[in-house]
Amino acid sequence: MPSFEEIKEAARRAGQRANMYAQTATAQFHSGFSLPSECNRAAKVLQSFLVDPERPDTVMSSIPKRVLLRAKGLAIFTVAKAGMGWSGKAGSGVVTARLPDGSWSAPSCIATGGVGFGWQIGADLTEFVIVMNTEEAVRSFGLSGNMTFGGNMSAAAGPVGRGSSAMMSVGHMAPMYSYSRSKGLYVGISLEGTVLMERKDANREFYGQPIPAMDLLLGKVPAPEAASAMYEVIEAAEDFDETAFLRAVYPNSSHRSQSMQEPEPDIYDQDQEDLHQDHDGDGKAAVGSNPSN
C-alpha cells in the first residue's frame, strides 16, 4: 500500500501534467484561429442566441432586442473543455464596443484557458455572449489586457424572451449579462473568477502593428471588412421588428403587449461620448497593411 508521501508525490506529478496539458491545449487552440475566423465564428455564435424568424418559438428564449440596443459592448467566445479526472479548458473569441454614432468598433481578439480538478470525462463545447451594459465594463476589457469576472465586474445571467423588462431597467442592470449555450441548450455557467486575456499576437498579425485593445474599442481603427458578418448579425438584430413579428405569430395573444407598449431605448447616449472624451479620441490610428485582406 503506498505511503501518504507517495500519494502526495503522485498527485503533484498529476497536477504538473494537467497544467502542461492545459497550457499546450490553450496554445494549440489559439494558434489556429485568426481574427477573421474568430469574427466569422462570433457571427454564427451570436446568431444562435437571437430570434430565428423561421422558428417563432425562439422569441421566448432569445436575447431580447432591448438588451442589444442598450449594449455598450459585446464579447463573444467559445470554450472547449476536456479531460478525465481533471479538466483543461481553452477558449477564444472577440470583443467589440459600440461607438458614439451607434456603429461597432474594430474587434479585439480575446482568449481564456486553465485547468481544474473534478470528474470531467470527455469533451464539451460552450458558447458565450457577454453583453456589457456599462462603459466601465467596456474599459475593463480594454485597459488592462486581462479582465477577471467577479466583484464589481460580475456578470449576471441575462434576461431572455419577453417579460424581462424589470431586469433591463437601468436601476436593475448588472454591469454585464452572460449568456451561455452547450449542445444547443441554454446553460447557467458561472464566469466568476474566469480570466479573459487580450490576444495581442492575433491583433498584431491582423492589424499589421501592435494596437492596444482600448484603441480598437474606441474606434481609433476603422472597422475591418473581415468582421462584416459579425456586424451584419448585430445590425439585423437591432433592426428586427419584434412587434410586427409577435403580432404575426401571436395575433390574439398577450405575448406582444409589452413589446408594443414600451419604447425602444436610445442607443446613442452621453455615456459613450464621455468614454471617448476620456481617452484622447482624436482621429484614427494609422494601421499597417493587412496581409489578411
TrEMBL record:
Start and end residues of each stretch annotated as Disordered: 252-293
Limits of the Ysc84 actin-binding domain: 114-237
Membrane-crossing residue ranges in chain numbering: none
MF GO annotations: actin filament binding; phosphatidylinositol binding
One cellular component term from this protein's GO annotations in UniProt: actin cortical patch
CDD domains hit by this protein: SYLF_SH3YL1_like
Pfam family, one: Ysc84
InterPro entries: SH3_domain_YSC84-like, SYLF_SH3YL1-like, Ysc84_actin-binding
Bias type Acidic residues, positions: 263-272
Composition-biased stretches (Polar residues): 252-261
Basic and acidic residues composition-biased segments: 273-283
Biological process, per Gene Ontology: actin cortical patch localization; actin filament bundle assembly
PANTHER family the UniProt entry points to: SH3YL1 PROTEIN (PTHR15629), YSC84 ACTIN-BINDING DOMAIN-CONTAINING PROTEIN (PTHR15629:SF7)
Protein name: Ysc84 actin-binding domain-containing protein
Source organism of this protein record: Malassezia psittaci
